[in-house]
């Protein structure tokens, strides 16, 4: 049975293994093999965003809820990662650096109960293809928020430092129904309208006063704002 504190302890212990990445993959795989237990422990996803479950210099654990139809531009992590899906679907597109900036070299679609390891040098873009929130546990072998990283313009593939303060707009679709009503452990695509949102980062101490915000998240550092 998935328990948040136990999972953190297990991940910390796994860091001491000779192959910490593989050990954490096993933990994540086991966790998402019982998606209902993850939802029971972390709560049913009601808004899109990032909840930091644990953060240290050598380990970050995130509960990441991708908004319906959200598209996240190419980026790297510069640390190993494990992604496990406990509800919904996530499409990964992988890239390699090339003379033109980036060249696509593969895709991988993850569904509920899937867990994959990502290497330190991976560059990927992520899409939630569904009209509901996709819930995922992301574990990183370092401090995900403070590490220097790159991102690429999705049209020109121009590399630039990851700018956590001013993200380029993400494309999302959402039904007019509430996100909670859309949440299902299974997943079924439906019709949705497309809207443009901007994701901005806020420090934990900063007050969020923008009334146009689409969703204010409580324990994380992102605000998703309607652009058009
Ligand atoms: Fe990523």
Structure notes:
The structure is a single chain. With 228 residues, this protein is an alpha+beta fold. The protein has a single domain, classed as Jelly Rolls. Helix content is 16%, strand content 42%. The protein has 4 helices and 15 strands. It has helices spanning 4-14, 20-32, 35-42, 179-182; strands at residues 49-56, 59-66, 71-76, 81-87, 89-98, 101-111, 115-118, 123-127, 134-140, 150-152, 159-161, 170-174, 193-201, 213-216, 222-226. The strands form 4 sheets. The chain has a 5-stranded antiparallel sheet with strand order 1-2-9-4-7. Strands 3-8-5-6 form a 4-stranded antiparallel sheet, with no helix packed on it. It has a 4-stranded antiparallel sheet with strand order 12-13-15-14, with no helix packed on it. Strand 10 and strand 11 (159-161) form a beta hairpin. The N and C termini lie far apart (42 Å). Bound molecules: fe (ii) ion (FE2). Residues 75, 77, 124 line the site of fe (ii) ion (FE2).
